[in-house]
Structures are given as structure tokens and as C-alpha cells.
Amino acid sequence: MKNPVILTIVILLLAGCLSGSRPLLLHDFHTSLTQMQYNAKEKTFEISVRIFTDDFETALTQENNGQKVKLTANDNNDLLIEKYIRKHFAIITPQKQRKPFQYLGHEPEGDANWVYLEMPHPEPFKGGTVQYDVLMELFNDQVNLLNLQYQGQKKTLMFRKNQPVQEIAL
Q1: How many whole angstroms separate alpha carbon 60 and alpha carbon 113?
Q2: Cα-flanking dihedrals φ and ψ of residue 97, to 5°?
Q3: Could you give the CA distance from residue 106 to residue 112 in angstroms, rounded to a whole number?
Q4: Cα dihedral 16, 19, 24, 27 sign
Q5: Secondary structure (DSSP) of 60-75
Q6: pTM to 2 decimals?
């Protein structure tokens, strides 16, 4: 990796995950990670968003007018999660159109939650912009990473409070 900030975040995430200790539950940094891979056979982008559960519950509670949200494997929070994700994550075409996506569900894993999305994309990908401001309404130091893979090309984008929208060019 050429970007030292991304490398530092990855090292901190791995160290916390491998230690098996409590620090990730009470983490000092705020980050999310999104994997966006193109499935050429299905002509869709498969999108997985990893968000720390405690931070996500705080954001969803705020979105839910202060009514406490607890994320578990069999909860009834999918409509709230989908609404939040649609508000804070979008791919926008060069023609300034938001690409529609389908919310598939969420899954707790350790101290994080995975949110799964699928975005049909039958036409060739020609770039555009990404809005990715998950949790930025809560944390000034929030960093969101997006790893994009499209037909053998890879791109990593980093989003911060002062830069929640970025251009994608492959």
C-alpha cells in the first residue's frame, strides 16, 4: 500500500482483530470499510459494508428519534438500517443519477456489523462519484474506506468529514 494513512488504519484493525481482546469494543478510532466487487456474470456490484456495532447502534438510535436500537442476528432493524445506508451511501453516475441498489440484509460479526447490498450494473462502468458519509454525523474523525474491484482493476478511496464525496475513475 502506498498511502501511509490507509496502511496505519489496516494495521490497527488487524491488530485489534487478532488480539481477541476488548479494545475494539471500546475503540479510539472511527472507521468503516466497504468492499465493492463487480460480478461480471451477474452484471452487478456486490457491496459489503463493515461498521463497528456500537457506533452503528448510536447512529441508528439517533435516526430512530432517540429510541434505542440494538443490533443482533435476528432483530427487526432492516428497514431502519436500509434507510440509514441509503441516506449515507450512494454511487452517482457521470449523468448525476443515483444508481439504485438493493439492500440484502445485515449480519453481526464480533464487534462489527456487515451490511450487504447489490447494485445492478449491466452497462460498462464509466466512473462517477461516491457519497460515503456513514457515521460522519457523529464523529469528526470518522474515516470510511472503499475498496473497489472492477474487471481486474482495483481502487481504494478514503472518505473523511471534509471529503465525503469523491470521484471514481478507473
Answers
A1: 12
A2: -105, 135
A3: 10
A4: negative
A5: HHHHTTT------TT-
A6: 0.82
